[in-house]
Amino acid sequence: MRVGIISQARMTSTRLPGKVLREAGGQPLLAWHVQRLRAAGAPLYLAITTNSADDVLAEFAAAHGLPCTRGDEHDVLARYQQCAAAHELDVVVRVTSDCPLIAPELIAAGIQRYLAAADDQLYLSNALERTYPRGFDFEIFSSKMLAEAAAHATRPEDREHVTPFLHQNRADNVRFSHFRRPTDASRYRLTVDTAADFELLRQLLDDYDAGHMTAEELISLLDTHPELVAINARVEQKKL
Predict the structure, then answer these.
(1) Percent with pLDDT over 90 in the chain
(2) Do 104 and 128 contact (CB within 8 A), yes or no?
(3) Which of 142, 161, 175, 208 is the most buried (most CB within 10 A)?
(4) Domain with 88 in it: what CATH number?
(5) Residue 3: which H helix or E strand, with range?
(6) What is the domain range of residue 62?
(7) Tell me, what DSSP letter sits at residue 46?
């Protein structure tokens, strides 16, 4: 089974444009994202838009030896399907580039669990029943399911957000597996969507060497530093 991690990225974020190339800890957030994902042990691919604003992301991908697929800005589902097909993937791990501290050990464990199930109608995620901080999110599903969603999903939100057709089980053939933490840490936010989010990540990367921490080490750090948690505690996640 050929498993690949596909991450989506663009420079035209509405709340914090250019966020993935902002620097913290001595390098762009996207570099931390790529570095950590490569530690998960599966090939990594970048899915970006055809907008000229994202040429800089194509240049980043080339400089980092990262295969890159370009497609429609709003039809992200098609971008994922095109990337999966181009690289002949059997299994797709979907992540997003606004998670610079994504945890490779969780993704590796998720992949192992998915493959052990040997079920191409399985959707495995740690985001539907959230027990990990936002910023560790991943979804795993077969390229067969991805192709089905790309062929049949028609709502704009389906095309933009990639997996609603799957995790809402619109084809009525999906089996679910939820990757949970024994105790709930979903109150923490380690994604970057606003200036406050970036400030927290900047401090974590600059002052605490967070880029080399595991998920549990990051959670423990937040448990013991409420002043850090307060930096972006008021940020509301955008609704689908």
Answers:
(1) 97
(2) no
(3) 142
(4) 3.90.550.10
(5) strand 3-8
(6) 3-186
(7) E
